Amino acid sequence: MAKMAKQQQQQQRHRQHQHQQKHRRQQQQQKHQHKKNDKPQNFVRSEVKDGVRITEFKVNQNAKANRRPQFKGRKVVPSNLLQKYTKGEGVQLKAVGRKNSYIQKKIKMKEKRIKYAEEESARAEILLPESKGQLEAEEGTYTSHITQTEIKKAVDITTAAKSFDLNLDQFGPYKMQFTQNGRHLLLGGRKGHLASLDWITKKLHYEINVMESIHDVCWLHTELMMATAQKQWVYIYDNQGIELHCLKKMDRVLKLEFLPYHFLLCSGSETGFLTWLDVTLGKEIIRTPTHKGRLDVMCQNPYNAVLCCGHPNGTVSMWTPNAPEPVASILCHPHPLRAIDVDYTGKYMATLGVDRQMKIWDARNLGQCLQDYTIGSGASNVAFSHKNLLSVAIGNIVEVYRNVTLGGTNQAYMRHKAGSMITDMQFCPYEDVLGISTYKGYSSLIIPGSGEPNFDALEANPYISKSGRKEAEVKALLSKVPADLITLDPLSIGQVDTPTLKEKLEAKKALLYVRKPKVDFTPRYRMKGKSGSSQKFKRIQKVREDTQREYLKAAYTQRKELGLGKKKKQQKETKPTEVLDRFKPKKKVK
Amino acid sequence: MVKMKTTSVREKEQEDEELFMVSGLGNTGGEVDDDNEVEEGDDQQEASHAQLLSSVMKITKKERMQQDVRTSMGTSTLDTRHLLTRLLPTTSIRKEKSKSTLSVPLEKSVARRIKRAAGYENVAMEVNKWAKVVKVQRESEQLRFPLKQSGVSLKTVEKTDSVQMKTPLEKEVYSLLQGAKLVEDKNESKEEEIARKALSLDQIRERNRELWRQKELKRRYEQKARLMNKSKSRKHHRLLRREKLRKQKAMLEELQKTDPEAALECLQELERSRIQERMSLRHKTSKWAHLQGFRANRDKTVMAALKENQRLYQELTTKSAKAEESEEDDSSGDAKGGRESAVQGTDEPLNPWTKQRQSLASKSSPEDESFTRFKKFWEEVNRRKEADLEIQKQLEKEKEENVKIRGQKQEEDKKQEKEGVVEEENNSMKEGGEQTKKKVSKKRLQKLQKAKDQVQKRKHKKTETEDSGEQLSKKSPGKKGNKKCKKTLGTQNQEPVNIDDLFDEVEIGIKNKVQRKLKKLGVNSKEPWTEVKTKKKKKKVPDVVAPSEIEEFDFTSKHNQENINETTERAKTLQELESLEGESVNKLQEAVQTIKDSNAPSNTPAPNHNKLQVDPNKFLQVESKRLATAMPDSVGESGEALDDEEQEESAENIIREAFADDYLMEEFSSEKAEAIKKDQPGSISLALPGWGDWTGPNRKMSNRKIRKFRLRVAHAPRKDSKLGHVLYNENADVHTNLRKAMVSQLPYPFKSVKDFEASVRAPVGRLFVPETAHKKLTAPPIVTRMGTVIQPMTEDELLCSETPGKGWNKKR
Question: Which of A341, A454, B333, B350 could make an SS bond with A128 (beta carbons 3.0 to 4.6 A apart)?
Answer without folding.
Answer: A454
